[in-house]
Amino acid sequence: MSQHVKALENELGVRLFDRSNRGVTLTPAGQVLYDETRAVLRRLEHAKIKARHAGLGEIGTLAIGFVSIAGYGILPPALKRFRERFPRVDVQLHELTTDAQIRALRDGRLDLGIGLGPVDEQDLMFDPVRGDRLLLAAPVGHRRVPRSGAVRLGTLSNEPFIVPPRNVAPGLYDLIISLCRANGFAPNVTQHARQMQTVIALVAGGMGFALVPESVRKLERAGVQYRSLRGETGSIELGLLSATEHESPVAERFAAVLKRAAGAARRG
Hints:
The structure is a single chain. By secondary structure, the protein is α/β, with parallel strands linked by helices. It is 40% helix and 26% strand. The strands form three sheets. Strands 3, 4, 5, 6, 9, 10 and 11 form a seven-stranded mixed sheet that branches. It has a two-stranded antiparallel sheet with strand order 1-2. Strands 7-8 form a two-stranded parallel sheet. The relative contact order is 0.18.
């Protein structure tokens, strides 16, 4: 030990200990080195603990993109549960269309996305978590909509429709078009809108009808009524988007919580 101490003193060019017949005491330089070394060891131990928690997905930062539909349905309860279980994770939410989420995941600006399927991209994974059937969003009091009961979609063949652009939500767009065609007509699309809030606002303003996922029913707005459709309506998939080469324990934790929340919503 004394040889190691002597070698360290030679390296630093200062004495670390005062040696006398009464014993060995720290010099001022030795005291500083002792205090700093203890602080480094404490920080190292703290870093080891944080690294362990980060590896388990219990701390860190999580950037999540989500379509507005998720905000009306499975996202709020999942986020509440996640924050209760992992309060040291900083969750950053970004409301984005599915196409914008895909770009952000590729750029590394998102760790996880909640978007509309289907998504067929080689560098991305899409894991469906919930199916949302389509409803009719109609202006209140419209002459083509009966006062009660489900609506036959074919009765609206000559009415204007508001749909999302296909490049923004190809799955939803294709489902709407195919559902209208199955009822004997091609929809008269008079307006495209990227966000569901905008779609519903246009319906409320009497601009036309829209076929929307059931979760949108929670977006209550004066002038809009939500009605079931007669017959087969089909459903749109809501799922988790992630980059295949990006591993994130925190994202995996959130994905597990979201899936449980979606399962609880189905059972409820």
